[in-house]
Amino acid sequence: MSQTQEQGVTRRPLPLDGVRVLDFCWAVAGPVTTKFLALYGAQVIKIESRTRLDGSRLGFPFIEGRPGVNKSGYYANHNPTKLSIRLDLGKPEGREVAKRLARVADIATESFSVGIMEKWGLDYGELSKVNGNLIMISLAMQGQTGRYAGHVGFGRTLAGLAGIDNLTGWPDGSPAGPNQPYTDLVVPWFAVTTIVTALRRRQRTGRGQYIDLSQLEASMHFLAPAVLDATVNGRAMTRDGNRAAGAAPHGVYRCKDDPPRSGWCAITVLDDTHWRNLCNAIGQAGLQTDPRFATLLSRKANEAEIDAIVEAWTRPRGADEAVETLNRAGVPAAVVANGHDLHRDPQLRHRGHLKVLEHPVMGQRTYSQPSFRMSEVTPDHQRAALIGEHNDYVFGELLGMSPEEHADLQQQGVFE
Amino acid sequence: MLDGFRILDLADEKGQLCARLLGDLGADVVKIEPPGGDSARRLGPYYHDDPHPEKSLYWFAYNTNKRGVTLNLDCADGRELFRRLVRSADVVLETFQPGYLAGLGLGYDDLKRIKNDLIMVSITPFGQTGPDALAPASDLIMMARGGLLYICGDSDAPPARVRVPQSYCQGGAQGAMATALALHYRDETGVGQHIDLSIQEAIANALITVQQNWDMLQRIEERGTRQRRGNVIGKYSWACTDGYIAWCWWVAPGWGYKMYPLLEWMTEEEMVEDLWDWDWDSRSTNELNQEEVDHWEEVFTRFFLTHTKEEIFHQALERRIMLFPTYSATDLTGYEQLADREYFQSIEHPELGDAVTYPGAFVVTTEPMWSLRLRPPMVGEHNREIYGGELQLGDQDLAALKAAGAI
């Protein structure tokens, strides 16, 4: 039962009502996984301590630009609706409390380097002794086994290993994938789907299980056609700017806007109709009969020339104006949105994509909603907890610790 | 496992990973293509570079663990067949323009009358409603509108996308998550529902802090291989003699010690210069100035340029330096770690007289969950099995439907 229900606030039923998650995760991939479990009804108990913070609490940006454990937008976005406790797993007493929590949990999640949970005696082998039908998932960079499983890493560099960087950018430039830990926002969708499926299996069989998810292996499914090009054709697919077979022009063009707008628009001419529409929209109807551009093959052969013609038209225009003109003419085009543009995007506004939540330290901030609306389910999206905010509820009410035991453990620094 | 669940997959390339992922976990997926085949069959690369609809590696990648039938929803007999398939379905997945299926009498409300607890999943570029719900789109357009494209590519060049369309993958994988949640909800309550997924929002959900940086500090996150870290910009991609590696420096109390193994290696090779003069493990990233960062980065740049990416990776493995090589897909197919875990999975393609090797299990589990059971279907391969066997249409009826262009 979640806290909101305990406080007497009624809400619509959620898919994961009654499911309790003991969350050892840190950084991004793990916390985003448990974020989605929390949004859809699970009670997620996130374990941290002052000596071992989730490092993302120290991730930029901070409110007013100054660091603080309850000030990070990085953290707040990936940890809504969870309960936060402080429990020092470095102390044996802390680990015993964690085991007591595992006894009343359905799911345990962790994303440490390989071997950490085992060192603490909190690996699946140990936790399944106190809770025989526990479902546990580990989200390590490269999985729990294999010769390099123990190698340390993080998402920004894993995108290099996973082949994403190599396929992003310009043929004559550097491998330049998303300038953020991108695989961290690939992995959670695989993890949540698997966890929910494992719950269903447990309902049928009565058995829990251990799930070893390798972030590398899950992420490679987002590049599967390139992997097949390697296994079948022996080819190392390379980055190719914005080119697309079967389409020309197909690219990103500079516009006139000043910051904070992005000043770029994307245009994709996918067929001859789009091409005719584009020629008319940019006042160059004559290009339609120009033998250099009349067919797809001729346009592909002269793509650089077309790009120059298109950019000569976009450059003196604002991206909004260019896109509106092209869309009205039936040409797929869009502003290349930066953070500012996302906030003013009319479609995202219509969908209510950014939700405002009040946070006691960070004030009213915007948070991304899931990409989907469910006709019967409204996600329970609440602000990120302050560190240790739910110590009393979890240790007192949930575990039923006596005041004496609580005070004793407090004295020993177990709840720091 | 999802065995026992039947998914009717009407999705084109925009959503095919959704049903494949659920099929990997055991669902019975029936891929429904228009006569002549799905548009994803026209996406490369191709088996041995032969651009044939039965040889698209793009199609292969996202349509394993599915059986395939053809069906023309634009004719009455096709629609009737579809309604009959819906009777035994749990999930209908579709990626048509909003309103298209409703216009054919096959919208969620119509199908719900056939199967009361049906789950319908609609994956579209901008969602079912809103000013741009019908706007034309492509992978590049969705990447642009969702905010991911702006932070891809070099800093001194226009934004450049990931060559394998990420909008299709993000939409499909987040759609699988939504479907799993809806199936679980139905198990608990008996109630089905309609899921309306916007790929633009799926891309926006693939951003770490882009919208927060604007909301909190009116700061724009930029693309490139250098990233803002507090008041300075630090580099993440480094050229070596034969490619690149991915790595960044660390300066933070209790974290900066992670720098020492690399500095020790550089010391052994007499290339460390003055880098030991900085107190990596006690200063805060927030106190740094760009001048000192630029200086370190020049020293690191000189060092990495004296080694190959494999030399650097092997030292990193031995010395525990938080670094990875920038791998291509062919590098990955030869990567020992993936071989140790028996990641790659081969399956016979009798029509090619060959076996094809696929990316394998995204989870390794103690109870059976993931499997590769079926190679991707050929156009209409299971028409007879499903229409004849399950719907009990006779061969004559099938021939008539074929002649009428319904299947």
Q: What are the defining features of this structure?
A:
heterodimer; A: 416 residues; alpha/beta; Rossmann fold; formyl-coa transferase, domain 3; 2 domains; six-stranded parallel beta sheet; three-stranded antiparallel beta sheet; 14% strand; elongated; disordered N terminus; B: 407 residues; 16 helices
Q: Can you describe this structure in just a few lines?
A:
The complex is a heterodimer of chains A (416) and B (407). With 416 residues, chain A is α/β, with parallel strands linked by helices.
Describe the fold and architecture.
- The complex is a heterodimer of chains A (416) and B (407).
- Chain A folds into two domains: 282 residues, 3-Layer(aba) Sandwich (Rossmann fold), CATH 3.40.50; 95 residues, 2-Layer Sandwich (formyl-coa transferase, domain 3).
- By secondary structure, chain A is α/β, with parallel strands linked by helices.
- Helix content of chain A is 37%, strand content 14%.
- In chain A, α2 crosses α8.
- The longest helix of chain A is centred in the middle third of the chain and has 19 residues.
- The two termini of chain A are 26 Å apart.
- In chain A, the strands form three sheets. Chain A has a six-stranded parallel sheet with strand order 3-2-1-4-5-6, sandwiched between helices. In chain A, strands 7-8-9 form a three-stranded antiparallel sheet, covered by helices on one side. In chain A, strands 10-11 form a two-stranded antiparallel ribbon.
- With 407 residues, chain B is an alpha/beta fold.
- Chain B folds into two domains: 260 residues, Crotonobetainyl-coa:carnitine coa-transferase, domain 1 (Rossmann fold, 3-Layer(aba) Sandwich), CATH 3.40.50.10540; 107 residues, formyl-coa transferase, domain 3 (2-Layer Sandwich).
- Chain B contains 16 helices and 14 strands.
- In chain B, strands 3-2-1-4-5-6 form a six-stranded parallel sheet, with helices on both faces. A three-stranded antiparallel sheet of chain B has the order 9-10-11. Chain B has a two-stranded antiparallel ribbon with strand order 7-8.
- In chain B, a hairpin with a 2-residue loop joins β7 and β8.
- The longest helix of chain B is centred in the middle third of the chain and has 24 residues.
- The two termini of chain B are 31 Å apart.
- The model of chain B has no long low-confidence stretch (mean pLDDT 96).
- Chains A and B meet through α3, α7, α8, β6 and α9 of A and α1, α2, α6, α7 and β6 of B.
